[in-house]
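Schema walk-through. Below, the input block comes first and the output block second. Nothing else is stored per chain. Lengths vary across the set, and this one has 59 residues.
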Amino acid sequence: MAVPKGKVSKARRDRRKAQSWKIATPTLVACSKCGELMVPHKVCKNCGSYNKQVVLDVE
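--- output ---
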């Protein structure tokens, strides 16, 4: 069985574990039709298009 090589202090352990819960900023791409920033693989809220085709009626 694997055995730890030495004691890991609480501070070192907690510093390592603190990285996993941080919130990442969402990735944004430019809409291919209107150029507005949007989340990839979602319908554009500005023009209602997805993959250069209009899917929603936006007034």
